Amino acid sequence: MTQKHSHGRLAFVMPAPSAAAFEAFFNHEVRLRWDTLLEAMHVEGGGTHPYAGAISTNRGRGWKGGVTMRTRFLVYDPPRQAAAELLEPTGVFERWAASMRFTDRGDGSCNLIYTYAIQLRPTSLEALFGWAGNMLFAWETRRRFGAMAEYLRAGGGA
């Protein structure tokens, strides 16, 4: 039986042009200044930015500290889009994938569209609580991008 993934699409307006917003998210040294989800992250092999094919390791912050995810970047096209997927199951995640698209607006800000798919494990957890996992993930994502917007609003992307 094929498991249905939880999907989501969240839209944000970032108070900076797409180049600054993209840099704030994908420059790993900068991102740790504002990211509410991560305590540590690095690109395997070194560097501050991922690239198509890069593998990054990301360790959660706070109560999420027990979760470390290794992801592979499938697309990395600054400042327009990036996409990544989970390499192997970790924590409660059987699968995770996400993409981000940035488009400039005429007022100096940009649209950020975040699309994701998650599947929990074990299968029984997904069957019973996949909907709740999706709601929690969406809540955390809104919180995280709210923190990114505050960072950019305070001049962090300048």
Notes on the structure:
The chain has 158 residues and is of the alpha+beta class. The protein has one domain (6-153): Alpha-D-Glucose-1,6-Bisphosphate, Chain A, domain 4, CATH 3.30.530.20. 28% of the residues lie in helices and 38% in strands. A seven-stranded antiparallel beta sheet has the order 1-7-6-5-4-3-2, covered by helices on one side. It is globular. The N and C termini lie far apart (50 Å). The mean pLDDT is 89.
Quick recap of the structure?
With 158 residues, this protein is of the alpha+beta class. It has a single domain, classed as START domain (Alpha-D-Glucose-1,6-Bisphosphate, Chain A, domain 4).
What fraction of residues sit in β-strands? 35-45%
Structural class: alpha+beta
Q: What would CATH call the class?
A: Alpha Beta
Task: Walk across the major sheet and give the strand order.
Answer: 1-7-6-5-4-3-2
How does the major sheet shape up? 7 strands, antiparallel
Radius of gyration of CA atoms, rounded to a whole number:
15 Å
Number of domains: 1
Poorly predicted runs of 5 or more residues: none
Kindly state the mean pLDDT as a whole number? 89
